[in-house]
Every structure is written in C-alpha cells, then in structure tokens.
C-alpha cells in the first residue's frame, strides 16, 4: 500500500503521477465497485501508464455502493446532505487520522497554523444533521484554535463575539446563512476573512458566485470573499482567496472532461465536467467524476461554474446501473 507521508509530501508532477498510478492499481484491484466499473469499460489496469488514462468513478456510486477498499471495518462513515428525495452519499474512511492530517495540512498550506486563528462556523444545515465531514473538520480546527465556535441562528451573538475577538478570524459559513447576516445586519468586521462553502439548500434564490460575493463584500465590508471547495466523497479541500479561483493541495488534482464524452479530457481553459484526483482517498476511491462544471486555468487553479443539468443522469449511466 502507498505510504501516506509520500502522498502529503508530493513536491512535483512526477511524484504525483507515481503515487497516483500506484494507488490506482491498488484500488482497481481492491475497491469492488471501482473494479467492476473498470471491467465494464474494458480497461486493463496494468496497461494504464498515464494519469490522463485513469478512469474516474462516477460520484453517484457513493450513493448506491460501498466504495471502500480498507482492510478493516471503516472507522467513520461520512454522509452528504440530502435536500431532496435522493439517497445521500456515504464515504467510508478507514482512518479518521488520515482525514485529520489531510484537512489540517491543506488548511495550513493556504492559511498557516490553525492556532493563529479564531474560526467561527455558521453551518446551520450541517449542524442539524449527523455525519457531516465538514462539521467534523471545522470542529477539529476550532479546537486547535482554542477560540471561535459554531452558531446556528444566533446571529447577534456571532457578530458580538467576532467584534470582541482580538485574534485574526475566519467566518466560514454556508452561502444562505452568510447572505442572511449580511442583509439583515451588514456588520463591518475587521481582521476577518469571510469564507463561504456554497449551498443555498433551497433556503434562498440561487445566485451566481460573482453576484453572491458582491453582496457579501458589501455587507461585511470585505475586499474579497474566500471559498472552501469540498464534498462528502473527498478527503481533501481546495480553497479560493477571491475571484472564485480555487487551488488544491499538492496531493489533489482537478481535470476537466468533455460533458458529452466522460472519457475525453478537455484542454486547459475549456469548460467541462470536473474530475478530481484526491490521493488522500486511500481507503475509498481517489479518482472521482463529479457533477460539477468548471474549467482549469494555466497556473493549476480551477473555477466551478455550476452543475451538470440532470446530474444524476450521466454519460455512463448504463454502466453505473450495471454495477448497482
């Protein structure tokens, strides 16, 4: 099995490719849904020599199958939010320590030591259910900070606490809750990063990122809105420090596929479906075909521009149903 430290200490593309191919062959053999999917594609894992040729598992299989290749029972099963009638995704992780290492190192790569911050979590819809990997991540970081905390709908207390906190602060919240605070109170925070993690969850009208960020900048008096990009099926997160341009940690890569041909990757700058390699997904599947649309920039950054229409119906839908 690939060494965890070698993943977190990737320095260049050659090291990334070596780790990715090694992990691919391991998971192609041991992760049953992934193995069956690859067989249906008619691909021989031993003949895959480039990361561009690795098949990406459609993310909806996390809803219907146990996407898992751990040697023992999973230590934790995280679940996605379920705002409709669809089945939530289940991400089975063999080790919580791997998850803690991944999100801590990713955070530190972009923002430095957690202890230097106060983190305020405004994640009401996540706190109101069990199994959220985001809540676990933010809760762990808050404990490392020693300051900050979670808030549901007690916005006035949140504003009071942030304004009276002398440390540098991060207010991380879902889009609709941040919008509610900005619209109702328009608090002007100092020394505070406003970070949204997406999701109107049917609570408010959907806006483009640029429209939402303009409202939040005006309401909070911020120069830019930061963003966190993650999902239940991933172990790692990417971050944007403004302009909706995300950057991933060194063990994570984003690629774009043709929306009409999920096995053909588009060149840089072209809009298409988002594929993600998250090498910290050691015990599930590291190669995920998401339902997001976006583009990859020349410097390795990426933008998320929406969701694929009818996203539960994919170009390889027939293959998926053959696995279920």
Summarize this structure as a short list of keywords or feature phrases.
324 residues; Luciferase, domain 3; seven-stranded mixed sheet; 2 domains; alpha/beta; 23% strand; single chain; six-stranded mixed sheet
How does this model look, in words?
There is one protein chain. With 324 residues, the chain is of the alpha/beta class. The chain has 2 domains: 4-72 and 250-323, Luciferase, Domain 3 (Luciferase, domain 3, Roll); 113-229. It contains 11 helices and 15 strands. A 7-stranded mixed beta sheet has the order 5-4-6-7-8-9-10, sandwiched between helices. Strands 1, 11, 12, 13, 14 and 15 form a 6-stranded mixed beta sheet that branches. Helix 2 crosses helix 3 (32-41). The longest helix has 18 residues, at 13-30. It is globular, with a radius of gyration of 20 Å. The two termini are 27 Å apart. The model is unreliable at 312-321 (pLDDT under 50).
Strand content: 15-25%
The low-confidence runs, each spanning 5 or more residues with pLDDT under 50, are 312-321
Q: So what's the CATH class of the largest domain?
A: Mainly Beta
The CATH architecture of the largest domain can be named as: Roll
- Record field, number of beta strands: 15
Q: CATH H-level name of the largest domain... which superfamily?
A: Luciferase, Domain 3
Molecular shape: globular
In which order are the strands of the major sheet placed?
5-4-6-7-8-9-10
* Number of DSSP helical runs: 11
Number of discrete domains: 2
User: Cα-atom Rg, whole angstroms?
Assistant: 20 Å
What is the end-to-end distance? 27 Å
Mean pLDDT: 91
């Amino acid at each position: 099995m690939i060494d965890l430290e070698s993943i977190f200490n990737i320095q260049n593309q050659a090291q990334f490719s070596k780790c990715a191919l090694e992990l691919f062959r391991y998971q192609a053999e041991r992760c049953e849904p992934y193995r069956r999917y690859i067989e249906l594609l008619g691909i021989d894992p031993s003949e895959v020599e480039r990361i561009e040729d690795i098949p990406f598992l459609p993310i909806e299989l996390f809803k219907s199958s146990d996407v898992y290749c751990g040697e023992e029972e999973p230590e934790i099963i995280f679940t996605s939010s379920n705002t409709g009638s669809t089945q939530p995704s289940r991400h089975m992780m063999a080790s919580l320590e791997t998850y803690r290492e991944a999100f801590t190192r990713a955070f530190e790569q972009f923002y430095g030591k957690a202890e230097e911050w106060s983190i305020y979590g405004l994640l009401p819809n996540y706190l109101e259910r069990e199994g959220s990997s985001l809540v676990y991540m933010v809760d762990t970081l808050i404990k490392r900070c020693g300051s900050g905390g979670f808030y549901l709908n007690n916005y006035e207390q949140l504003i009071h606490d942030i304004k009276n906190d002398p440390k540098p602060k991060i207010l991380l919240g879902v889009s609709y809750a941040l919008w509610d605070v900005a619209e109702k109170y328009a608090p002007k925070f100092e020394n505070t990063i406003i970070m949204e993690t997406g999701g109107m969850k049917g609570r408010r009208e959907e806006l483009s990122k640029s429209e939402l960020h303009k409202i939040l900048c005006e309401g909070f008096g911020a120069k830019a809105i930061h963003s966190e990009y993650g999902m239940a099926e991933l172990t790692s997160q990417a971050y944007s420090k403004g302009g909706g341009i995300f950057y991933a940690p060194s063990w994570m890569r984003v690629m774009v596929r043709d929306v009409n041909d999920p096995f053909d990757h588009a060149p840089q700058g072209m809009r298409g479906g988002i594929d993600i390699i998250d090498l910290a997904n050691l015990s599930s599947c590291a190669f995920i075909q998401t339902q997001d649309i976006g583009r990859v920039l020349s410097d390795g950054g990426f933008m998320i521009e929406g969701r694929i229409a009818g996203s539960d119906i994919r170009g390889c839908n027939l293959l998926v149903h053959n696995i279920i």
